[in-house]
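Predict structure. Chain length: 513.
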Amino acid sequence: MEAVNKLVAYALATKLIEKEDIIYSVNSLLIALGLDAAEYEISDIEALSREISLDEKDLSAYLETTLKELDDFAAEKGLIENDSVVFRDLFDTKLMGLLTERPSAVIAKFNSLYEKSPEEATNYYYNFSKNTDYIRRYRIAKDMKWIAPTEYGDLDITINLSKPEKDPKAIAAARNAKQSGYPKCQLCWENEGYSGRVDHPARENHRIIPVTIQDSKWGFQYSPYVYYNEHCIVFNSKHIPMKIEHGTFCKLFDFVKQFPHYFVGSNADLPIVGGSILSHDHFQGGHYTFAMAKAPVERSFTVKGFEDVQSGVVKWPMSVIRLSSPDYERIIALADVILEKWRGYTDEAAFVFAETDGTPHNTITPIARKRGDNFELDLVLRNNITTEEHPLGVYHPHAELHHIKKENIGLIEVMGLAVLPARLKGEMAELKEAMLSGADLRANEVLEKHADWVDAFKTKYDKIDESNIDEIIQNEIGEVFMHVLEDAGVYKRTPEGQEAFNRFIRSLPAEGV
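Prediction complete.
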């Protein structure tokens, strides 16, 4: 079967296998496809591998086409339970798993490169994770991405299209499937090599790099959805809940010391302001500079006893304290003081309550990085209190912004990258046509939720036509995301809000604000 030869040639071209592995690889794929023979010459597969372009886009297209041919064949033969994207993913991940080295070999290669340079090691592992199709490049390429200029800098906007929507067959199958508690979650180490099921992704082609953080075993991997360059996940080898504490700051800097070209941060540890997986202790990082990292300190202060640590408030829509010093242990010591103070801090005038009826509300989203000779820690103050007016959270996107974004504001959004729902791609295309034709948005049940927003922004422009409407819509979405972040900020960007922020800082105690 020609597609088998093509896939083996791809594996050879991307160095997933060596020349000596060709026969074994062909036979492994034949077994998976229910075939007992194939026509091929090793020299022909070698020649085909040399013809494959190693350009990122070309590789992605080649693999997508080849896997589709194999999925089509498998569906026709009845090897795929239901011919839908979920079941095709389960099957072609199994095929790629047959061409993926065992964990020990991948770890040995990573460690060998790390001895030369941490960056060489992560470059290898990132490319490996793409070549195995653990990161599905052809899906990531479908994400809509742009930069939106705002008063706080250029925000990253993405409409996430790379997570496949579950079709009715898959939803029905998941409902009828026997429930399993293995792996406990999608971050557990037991995902490595797991065959998956209709409600849990296959990971036969996934390999994890062990790292030691604060004398304990952690795993290092990339996110399969890579929202930004080298988007990595660092997770505890044990399935234990997330918690922001002294040890969190120590672990973040331990990772940054080992991978100084990466930032790393943690979601907050409370619902609403935390991430989507609070049950498993983990961090996210990567090789990318977000708008928040570029944002300047707008006013500095000095905390008593920590005069050696540069401290300041960052010009950002959320409430961010930045600590900087060549001595990360001094940063950690000051971060402990700030965290402890914030956990118990109440300022009724600013509607900041440490707890209500015994339920804690204050926590922190921390992000660590190395900048030149200094270590840096950004502490984003968070509060998850709810009210009747704001049942999803007072410091959460408010209802008038839900037409664009209503999901929780986690670590990635905090730093300045909007991950927006897939529905917006179609809605924005429809909105463009409606605006150009002068249609009544309120008469359209899909677009009516955007009508007030459009009425508010269209008066800002002398003209809106085919030449500028795409840029206008994108920039206005960026403006909405800026307001989303302002809603999530505990201390508002008003004189009153910033004075309330200063009151908290003075309570540390600190001078200069």
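Summary: The mean pLDDT is 95.
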